[in-house]
Structures are given as structure tokens and as C-alpha cells.
Amino acid sequence: MASFLQADLDPLETLDLLAHLIGFHLTLYIYHRAHPEATSERHADGTCRDACRPALLVDALEGADGGVIRRASAALFREQEARILQKGRAYVEQQVAAWAAGVPDEDLVLRLDSEARAHFHLRGLSKRARRTFESKVYGLAEQHTAGVLKRDGFIAAYAESLTDLLLRDFRKNFVGVHRKLAKAVGFVAPRKGPGARFVLGDNLLKALTLANLPPGSGMTYDEFLARLYERYGLVVGPDEARQSGLFDRQRINAEYYSRNKDALLEKMKHAGLAVEYSDATAVVGPDNSKEQLR
User: Fold this and answer.
1) Quick check: 294 pLDDT over 60?
2) Distance of CA 105 to CAs 76, 108, 110, 121, 149, Å?
3) Cα separation of 70 and 3, whole Å?
4) Rounded distance, CA 9 to CA 21, Å?
5) 255-260 long-range Cβ contacts below 8 angstroms, 24+ apart
6) Mean pLDDT along residues 124-141
7) Cα separation, 20 vs 24, whole angstroms
8) What's residue 4's pLDDT?
């Protein structure tokens, strides 16, 4: 915030860039909480920063490599959305298990039904979906009463049925909103259609540059990319790909990552966010920032 306030920007531009940065951080927060390694203990002691850092491959080549980076980035975006859905499923399962703890079998159905209606506001869902859910629960309850379905099996089946009921609404009102938010701030492209992948739009790139460089200072391009990975999990070049594990996971030739790195530098140079000197030194920041690095 201090960097933005000290920057020589038009007030409206400052607000616009801050809005992009806030939307970007909200998206990262969702990814952070949906990470498979995310636990309450790690969030409490701070170890979640390293354990839950995402690996988000930014496509700066825009298909100039034949689509290799683009396809890899799109696969990672789908992975993030799958993690969000899985986290939603796990949350429902945890809630159902907590509600059922210590409740006698004869009261189990009524207790779960009461808790689910209150906690998830089931009345807001469509009548057809609720009737389907209630029919499933009735069948499960009969099997449980007859001894065909044991207690643990009934609880698991109930949680699965409840998840199925909630999933459509969850996709629309959470996963869908996450996607719209990420696209609106220039973190995911295209704005419409399939093949969503991670990118850095002009305004978002400028916002991230300002957020990571105090006014009047500079850093080498390699340092800047390292900071983007350390802070946000953004992968651009081969060094970040190796550090994040993507290099081994995706088996993409290092040349593609190098070309991706060069493409982002060209974009930053064109936007006035970076300078490349005659000795091949690339610096992010104002034209005189190379002197400030010495």
C-alpha cells in the first residue's frame, strides 16, 4: 500500500491497479485454502506459506511455442478448480461427521437433516433438487434401519448425497465466481470460451511490479521472477519451474520455459516496466535503476 501511495500515478489509475491487486490476492487466497496440504495447524503456525504455495504457470508466449506452455498452464488451472471442488466435498464430509458424533442411531436421520437444513440453507435450493435428495436419504435410512447399511456407511452415503445436492450451487456461486474474478483482473484468459489459463494482463503486471518494488528502486529481472514465485507461486522461467517441481511433473523442455521468460520480459519492456541494457542486464524498474543496484 505504501508503494502505491508513493508512486507518481493518477489517483484513478492507482485505484484501478489496487482493485486488480486485491482481486489477484483473493484468487490466491482461494488456492491457498484449497491446497491439499492446507490444515488449520499450518495456517496457525505460518508454515502454510511454504507447504501450500501453488505452482501457477504463467503463459507469456500466447501460443508462439505451438501451445506447449498454454496447454500446461490450462492443465494447472483445471487442477486448481478441481482442488476447490475437492475441498468443498471434504468440508461437507467433515460437517456431517461432526454432526453425527455421539448421536444415537434412532436420532441420526433427524439430527443430520436438521443440521444440514440450518447450516447449508437448503431451502434456497430448487424444490426438485431437494425432493431428489430427500428421496435418497429416505432410502438410505430404510437400509440403515434394516441393518443392510451400517452406521459408518450411512453417514458416508448421507454426506455424498448432500454433496451432490450442494455441488451444482457450489459450482455456480463459488467456482464460477472465482473464475470470473480471476478473468476480470487479468490473471486468467480468455475472458470467454474454453482453454482458461494463467496469464498476466497489462494492469495486473503493472500492479505486481509496483507492489514488489519500492518507488525509485529496481531489481534484476531474475530477482523479480524469483520474488513472484516466492510470494505468489507464479512460475515463468526454468528456475521457478525447477523449484516448484513443475519441470519434473510436466516433462517440458527447459527451452520452452526460457522462451516464456523472454516473452514476459519483452512485454514488460514494451510497457515501460523493465529495461534491458547493452550488457544483457535486464532490470525491472525505472531507466536509472541499474545504477541503484550497484
Assistant:
1) no
2) 43, 5, 10, 24, 12
3) 32
4) 15
5) 256/61, 256/65, 256/68, 256/69, 257/69, 259/61, 259/64, 259/65, 260/58, 260/59, 260/60, 260/61, 260/65, 260/69, 260/236
6) 88
7) 6
8) 77
Residue 173, all three cell numbers? 456461486
Does an H or E element contain 283, and which? Answer: strand 282-284
CA angle 47, 51, 52 (to 5 degrees): 110
Contact by Cβ (8 Å): 4, 14: yes
Q: CB–CB of 225/236 below 8 Å?
A: yes
Percent share of the chain, pLDDT over 70:
97
Instruction: Say how many Å lie between the first and final Cα of the chain, rounded.
Output: 26
Cell, residue 238: 526454468
Amino acid in the structure at residue 146: A
Residue found by looking up cell 495447524 in the block:
41
